């Protein structure tokens, strides 16, 4: 009996541990070449409006995921929010399940994002504000918000959210992976920087390992990750504390890159030293030189997953550049920054959708390195 108990304890410990490179690569070998987008329906300005009961829009989601599938996409990165779970856990669980049914209908596997440090640090549930005219992502909200992040009394609520949502969907074959925290050390200097709480980075550095632990202890069958997005990653000595946490805790490695192809490839090569699957969970900013034509062939060559920012032009207004925060646009820019489709489903650029279809249709395992 003692030996059986010892074996059970070892099994539980293994389930709660970070995946080995062999486990991560075995999981990745079962996946197609993952190509998709970061997704918010055109009818939602942020995560709250996407998921709250009064504004959840399955008909619109079904239509837009149909456009994504037709373009060759097989995955989407989708942001959740702790405040929606706090409002109505059972209802939120039902709406996530509805979303997963729609995604499965279109053969799309979502990656869910649990927390996010980008944009407005003061999320409020309920009716969301209208977009600011001419401004990129004018209503996106952080989660946890600044007050929750700074308040130790909020930890049990945040822990319950992570554990319960991962427990609910952590063995659901419709879910691809979990991104536990998006850009955790982003201080939003060009938008909300003056409103960020003092010591934000230190607070997130303390909380992020706990979030990984909470998610792991829910025993998901899918991998966990948190994407590095700034700094240098080629050697351990170059890593900052937050990047060390992200790279040492992630089952699969993820990163963001909105730059030109040469830098995109350099980022991939820097991360290959970890011997784990690599997913680029944000790319494609046309004005920065990050494009489908430039990045997709590189991603395919290294068998790196690729998620563009945005799918459909809508209330997030991320077809507008980042600098619209300093200079709101009075008309549509000559070149869109993000997004693939116009609000009515017509491609912004036909040649980009054609390229997506061609590259996703011709994945060749012989190209894997």
Instruction: Give the percentage of residues in beta strands.
Output: 5-15%
The CATH homologous superfamily is named Glycosidases
Order of strands across the main sheet: 5-4-3-2-1-8-7-6
User: Describe the biggest sheet?
Assistant: 8 strands, parallel
Radius of gyration (Å):
20 Å
Stated plainly, the CATH topology is called TIM Barrel
Instruction: For the record, give the distance between the C-alpha atoms at the N and C termini, rounded to a whole number.
Output: 47 Å
What's the tally of helices? 13
- N-to-C series of helices and strands: HHEHHEHHEHHEHEHEHEHEH
By CATH, the architecture is named: Alpha-Beta Barrel
Overall SS class: alpha/beta
Mean of the pLDDT scores? 94
Number of E-type strands: 8
Helical content class:
25-40%
Poorly predicted sequence stretches spanning 5 or more consecutive residues: 3-15, 364-369
Principal-axes geometry comes out as globular
CATH C-level category: Alpha Beta
The total tally of domains equals 1
Describe this entry's structure for a reader.
By secondary structure, the chain is an alpha/beta fold. The protein has a single domain, classed as TIM Barrel (Alpha-Beta Barrel). The chain contains 13 helices and eight strands. The chain has helices at 2-16, 21-29, 47-51, 58-70, 82-87, 89-105, 146-150, 155-169, 200-217, 241-249, 261-271, 292-301, 350-361, and strands spanning 35-39, 75-79, 109-116, 177-182, 224-225, 253-256, 278-283, 305-308. The chain has an eight-stranded parallel sheet with strand order 5-4-3-2-1-8-7-6. Helix 11 (261-271) links the parallel strand 6 and strand 7. The longest helix is centred in the middle third of the chain and has 18 residues, at 200-217. It is globular, with a radius of gyration of 20 Å.
């Amino acid at each position: 009996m003692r030996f059986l108990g010892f074996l059970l304890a070892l099994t539980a410990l293994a389930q709660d541990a970070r995946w080995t490179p062999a486990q991560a690569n075995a999981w990745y070998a079962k996946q197609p070449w993952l190509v998709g987008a970061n997704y918010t329906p055109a009818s939602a300005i942020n995560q709250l409006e996407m998921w709250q009961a009064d504004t959840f829009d399955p008909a619109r989601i079904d239509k837009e995921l149909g456009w994504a599938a037709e373009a060759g996409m097989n995955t989407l990165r989708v942001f959740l929010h702790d405040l929606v779970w706090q409002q109505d856990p059972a209802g939120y669980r039902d709406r996530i399940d509805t979303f997963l049914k729609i995604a499965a209908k279109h053969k799309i596997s979502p990656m869910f994002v649990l927390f996010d440090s980008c944009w407005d640090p003061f999320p409020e549930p309920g009716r969301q504000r209208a977009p600011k005219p001419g401004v990129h992502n004018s209503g996106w909200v952080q989660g946890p918000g600044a007050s929750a992040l700074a308040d130790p009394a909020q930890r049990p609520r945040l822990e319950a959210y992570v554990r319960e949502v991962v427990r609910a969907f952590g063995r659901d074959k419709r879910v691809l992976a979990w991104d536990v925290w998006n850009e955790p050390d982003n201080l939003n200097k060009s938008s909300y920087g003056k409103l960020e709480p003092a010591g934000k980075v230190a607070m997130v550095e303390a909380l992020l390992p706990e979030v990984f632990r909470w998610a792991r202890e829910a025993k998901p069958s899918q991998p966990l990750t948190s994407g590095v997005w700034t700094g240098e990653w080629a050697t351990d000595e170059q890593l900052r504390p937050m990047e060390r946490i992200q790279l040492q805790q992630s089952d699969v490695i993820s990163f963001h890159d909105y730059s030109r192809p040469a830098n995109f490839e350099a980022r991939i090569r820097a991360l290959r030293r970890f011997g784990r699957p690599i997913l680029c969970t944000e790319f494609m900013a046309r004005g920065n030189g990050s494009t489908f034509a430039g990045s997709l062939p590189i991603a395919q060559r290294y068998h790196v997953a690729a998620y563009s920012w945005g799918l459909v032009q809508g209330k997030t207004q991320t077809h507008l550049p980042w600098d619209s925060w300093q200079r709101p646009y009075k008309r549509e820019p000559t070149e869109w920054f993000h997004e693939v489709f116009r609000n009515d489903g017509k491609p912004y650029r036909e040649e980009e959708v054609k390229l997506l279809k061609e590259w996703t249709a011709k994945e060749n395992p012989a190209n894997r390195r």
